[in-house]
Amino acid sequence: AGADTVKRAVELDLASRFQESLVCYQEGIDLLLQVVKGTVCQPFTAAVEARLLSFSDGKYHKQIRIEENATGFGYEKLFQEYLTEIVSEVWVEDPYIRHVHQLYNFLRFCEMLVKGPCKVKTIHLLTSCDEGSGRNQQISGLEEIQQSLRNYGVTLNIAFSSSIHDREIRFNNGWMIKIGRGLDYFKKPQGRFSIGYCDFDLRPCHETTVDVFHTKHTKKM
Predict the structure, then answer these.
(1) Which fold has domain 1-58?
(2) Between 1.10.101.10, 3.40.50.150, 3.30.870.30, 3.90.1150.10, what CATH number should domain 62-214 receive?
(3) Which residues are registered as beta bridge partners of 171?
(4) Residue 219 has what pLDDT?
(5) pLDDT tens-digit profile of 30-64?
(6) Per-position DSSP letters for the chain, written without gaps between them
(7) Percent of the chain at pLDDT above 70?
């Protein structure tokens, strides 16, 4: 599987499809390293890793600009290509998973993870705690999501911070996505029976930016 993935990475590389190639190189070398662990193939994996680091002078950064009222930016559109089969752990840092619609945003994000092709086993959520009348609703909603994920073999760890400000999502295959508005970049639908209420690809968005990094090319926090 690792060799096939690297072969696909080389094909994409030669076709100048560098972003897709980078994903395949990363997954391929991770699969190979799981098997190799110091065997005679080590020079080969080192060569692949060197190619991985050669992208953009050793740095990888892609920015997506979502315009006001733009559609077609559901969670699958933003995240799917980074959710490779080796993804098993996810970190979500977002201070605004508090109100009902924000809880639904997080739930839909979790549904995307459960559908695969990744095999997520653990999700870590760090958010702020609603200090007003919505606190009980926030806690009960998160606990319900936690229980539902447990039925799918996924553990949700929930932590609260009163000082959290930045918003980022990290996968254990090295990808990190920062969205200016966090998961809450969709506009309120016109009604419960309006187009876009269920399908986020059809929901108009607020203006925001999405920055994609690879942690091997960024400073560790």
Answers:
(1) Methane Monooxygenase Hydroxylase; Chain G, domain 1 (1.20.58)
(2) 3.30.870.30
(3) 90
(4) 43
(5) 776 666 555 555 555 556 555 555 554 446 788 99
(6) -HHHHHHHHHHHHHTT-HHHHHHHHHHHHHHHHHHHSSSTTHHHHHHHHHHHHHGGGG--EEEEEEPTT-----HHHHHGGG--TT--EEEEE-S---SHHHHHHHHHHHHHHHHSSS---EEEEEEPPP-STTHHHHHHHHHHHHHHHHTTT-EEEEEE-SS----EEEETTSEEEEETTTT--BPPPS-TTSTTSS-GGGS-B--EEEEEEEGGGS---
(7) 81
* Whole-model pTM over 0.70: yes
For residue 84, the model assigns a pLDDT of 85
Asked if pLDDT for residue 81 goes beyond 80, the answer is: yes
